[in-house]
Amino acid sequence: MILTQDSTQIEVTIHVNGTPHAVKIDPCVTLLDLLRDHLQLTGSKKGCDHGQCGACTVLLDGKRVNSCLVLAVSREGSTVTTIEGLGSIANLHPLQSAFIRHDALQCGYCTPGQICSAIGLMLEGHAKSHDEIREGMSGNLCRCGAYIGIVEAIEDVMESESSREENR
Amino acid sequence: MKRFRYMKAVSVREAIGILAAEPGAALMAGGTNLVDLMKYDVSTPTVVVDINGLPLHDITEQPDGGLRLGALVSNADVAYDPRITERYPLLSSAILAGASGQLRNMATVGGNLLQRTRCSYFYDVQVRCNKREPGSGCPAKTGLNRGHAILGASPLCIATHPSDMSSLSRHWMQPSWWKERVAYEAFPSPSFIVFRERVPNATQPLSLGKSFSRWIFLPCPHRWDTAI
Fold first, then answer.
1. Quick count: other Cβ atoms within 10 Å of Cβ B30?
2. Which of A118, A165, B175, B201 lies at a C-alpha separation of 20 to 30 Å from A138?
3. Across the interface, do B101 and A66 touch by the CB < 8 Å criterion?
4. Mean pLDDT value across chain B
5. Which residues in chain A (2-21) have CB-CB distances under 8 A to chain B?
6. What mean pLDDT is predicted for residues A126-140?
7. Is residue B4 less than 8 Å (CB to CB) from chain A?
8. Number of structural domains, chain A?
């Protein structure tokens, strides 16, 4: 069966931060534009809009992706986690706390993408060393140059997670 | 981005049928290259055919000791698969040398080989480009061309293929491989890549029928006659 709809708008349901959102959108709407313009989740940032800067990084079905290059209509039924779904002001995600402790941001524009990317990298199991983190985070640019703090923050969370596992 | 219709194919036969019926259709797998090109109006498909539902997401052992990669396996899944890292470390390294973690999670190995050049003149629809408009010219030949071809370029186009994985396929192009038909049987063959670079406006490799290849075959490592 070929799924096709002649009308310009297509219905799609995407679960964002645990909440299902059924929307009717044009096929050209990217996941990033869906999040920002349709769901008012403006934490994910539009930097280059061409998959090069990483500011739009979200977790899509558990994997980090550049949401600016994903056509939202192609992701019916999928699960998205954005920076808004990771922590709250009262209860920060460990990486958010670590970013503050390590001064891992200046202007903060790239930070939501950095944090989502770092979580994706840790889930991939390739954040085990300083060099692995540097290489694995190379898809996230920071024009303020906070890279040293960003890598330290991720190392910090990795170390505290591994020490927690050892104490178990 | 120009408006387009979105269709989802659930079998290879359907995908081919849509391509045959819709001359302006383009296949979308990971979308990392196509969506980007559409944002620049370099690609202006009338129909985007989403092929992510096709059953081509597996890496499977072959009777001859090689591996068969489904065209839709992500670059990351190929690069980190233990069978690849142990038996084809250069392939793993080549994939990991390209793009970023996010893009490798999205991009597929089939799309990796089929992606278009990064030539800035190709990307700029305001300037001439033999790849976009046959016969219009190639400003790269006398322009900003530090990233362009030195050897093997055609008089019409000096753009390079952007894929690190594809560069590896050049290594596999040695005649001995072709005689044995073990190197690359697919999506697209290295000879196709050469053809496309020499005939710069040949843009629709997957247009019809048998050219729609589904798999990339890796030869059994011990049969490789060069150290890889």
1. 25
2. A165
3. no
4. 79
5. 2-6, 8, 10
6. 97
7. yes
8. 2
